[in-house]
Design a protein that fits this description.
The protein is of the alpha+beta class and about 350 residues long. The protein has helices spanning about 1-20, 30-40, 45-55, 55-75, 95-115, 125-135, 135-145, 150-155, 195-205, 225-265, 270-290, 315-340, and strands at about 80-90, 155-160, 165-170, 175, 180, 205-210, 215-220, 295-300. Helices cover about 60% and strands about 10% of the residues. Mean pLDDT is about 80; it is low at about 1-5, about 20-25, about 35-45, about 100-105 and about 120-125. It is found in: Cell membrane.
Length: about 350
C-alpha cells in the first residue's frame, strides 16, 4: 500500500512538473534545456512529497473525516434489503411430448400427407420458454393484478422487524384510505401503470438457469423478508399454472382439429395415426391436470431470510473513507505544485 501511494504521488508530481515546464518553452534553446531538465528531474524527491502531505495533514484529515461521515450517514440511511430464493429443477417432460416424438419418427411422412406436422412439439425447451414467460410483461402484469401487490411494490417505505408490519411512504400511498397520492409528471400517472410496475418488478426479480445442471434459481429482493418469500412462492405456483394451462388449451385445440380430420379422411392408415394423436393429446391433458409442479419441481424451497442481502455498509464506509483520503492528498499536492510553479 505504501509503495502504491508513493507511485501515485510521484506520478502526479512528474506529470504536473512536465506540463509546467512545457508551457514555458518558447524557442529551440528552451526546448533543449527542457529535455535536459526532464532527464535530470525524473527522480522526484519522495521525502519532499511526504513532507508536503504532512504539512497538509489537517486538510487531509478534515476531508477524509468528512467523506467518512458522509459514507456512514449514507450507509445508515439506506434501508435493509432482504433476498429470498428458491432452487428448482425442470419437471419430467410430459408423457404426451414423448409420445408425439415417437409418432413423428414412425409416422411423420404419412402425417405430412394429411397436413399434420409432428416434428416440432417434442423439440420445444419448456424450461427456457417458462423463464421467458416469467420475465414477460404479460405474466408480470397478471401477477401484480392477481395478487394485488402494487402498493407493496411501489410505495413501501420501511419494514418493522418487531411487529412484522410494513409502512408506506405517505407522499406516495395513503394506506388508511387505500389511495394513491403521489405527485408525478406526465406521462406517469397517479396510479402506477403496469409498464412502470413492470420496470420496478424487473429490478427486484432474478431468474437464472445453470446450463450444466439445468437447475433454475428464482429470487426476489424486498424490504420485507416475508414479502420476498411470499412472492417467490407465488411465482413458482403461477408459472406452473400458466404453463399447464397453455399446454392443456393447446392439447384441446389439437384434439378438436384431429377429430375433424378423422371425419374427413377415408384412408385407414391415416385414420390410425390420427387416433393415436388424439390419444397422446388426451395423455397430455391428463398429465397436466394431475400434476401441480408441471414445469418446475422445488428442490430447495424459499425461506424467510434472517440476514439482509444489502446494503454492504462496511464496504460503503471503507470505500467512502478511501475516496476522501485520495481526494484530499490530490488536493494538497496540486495546491503545492501550483504554488511552486508560480
Amino acid at each position: 500500500m505504501r509503495y502504491c501511494l508513493a507511485f501515485y504521488i510521484q506520478l502526479i508530481a512528474t506529470a504536473y512538473h512536465r506540463i509546467s515546464m512545457s508551457n514555458t518553452i518558447s524557442n529551440p534553446q528552451d526546448a533543449e534545456f527542457a529535455q535536459q531538465h526532464f532527464a535530470a528531474s525524473d527522480e522526484i524527491d519522495l521525502r519532499e512529497l511526504f513532507s508536503v502531505i504532512l504539512g497538509g495533514k489537517v486538510l487531509i484529515l478534515g476531508i477524509t473525516l468528512l467523506f467518512a461521515a458522509g459514507a456512514v450517514a449514507l450507509a445508515l440511511w439506506m434501508p435493509n434489503i432482504y433476498k429470498s430464493e428458491v432452487l428448482l429443477a425442470p419437471a419430467d417432460e410430459a408423457q404426451g411430448s414423448g409420445g408425439l416424438a415417437a409418432l413423428a419418427n414412425q409416422f411423420g411422412g404419412l402425417a405430412n400427407l394429411a397436413g399434420i406436422n409432428l416434428g416440432k412439439r417434442g423439440d420445444t425447451d419448456k424450461t427456457e420458454l417458462a423463464i421467458e414467460v416469467m420475465e414477460s410483461r404479460k405474466f408480470t402484469s397478471d401477477f401484480i393484478e392477481k395478487h394485488q401487490i402494487l402498493p407493496d411494490l411501489m410505495a413501501v417505505d420501511k419494514w418493522d422487524f418487531k411487529t412484522n408490519k410494513i409502512s408506506y411512504n405517505p407522499k406516495v400511498y395513503d394506506d388508511t384510505n387505500k389511495k394513491w397520492v403521489r405527485k408525478v409528471k406526465p406521462p406517469k400517472q397517479i396510479i402506477p401503470s403496469m409498464q412502470e410496475a413492470y420496470k420496478r418488478f424487473s429490478k427486484i426479480l432474478s431468474v437464472t438457469s445453470d446450463k450444466k445442471t439445468g437447475f433454475v434459481t428464482i429470487s426476489i429482493e424486498h424490504k420485507s423478508p416475508y414479502i420476498a418469500k411470499q412472492w417467490v412462492d407465488w411465482l413458482v405456483t403461477d408459472i406452473n399454472q400458466v404453463m399447464k394451462q397453455r399446454d392443456v388449451t393447446e392439447a384441446k385445440r389439437s384434439t378438436e382439429y384431429l377429430e375433424k380430420q378423422i371425419e374427413q379422411t377415408n384412408v385407414a392408415d391415416i385414420k390410425s395415426v390420427l387416433y393415436k394423436l388424439v390419444e397422446e393429446q388426451a395423455k397430455t391433458i391428463m398429465f397436466a391436470e394431475v400434476r401441480d409442479e408441471y414445469i418446475f419441481k422445488t428442490i430447495d424451497p424459499a425461506l424467510v431470510p434472517e440476514e439482509k442481502f444489502k446494503p454492504k455498509r462496511a464496504l460503503i464506509c471503507v470505500l467512502g473513507t478511501l475516496l476522501g483520503g485520495m481526494l484530499a492528498v490530490f488536493i494538497v499536492l496540486v495546491r503545492y505544485f501550483v504554488k511552486k510553479g508560480n
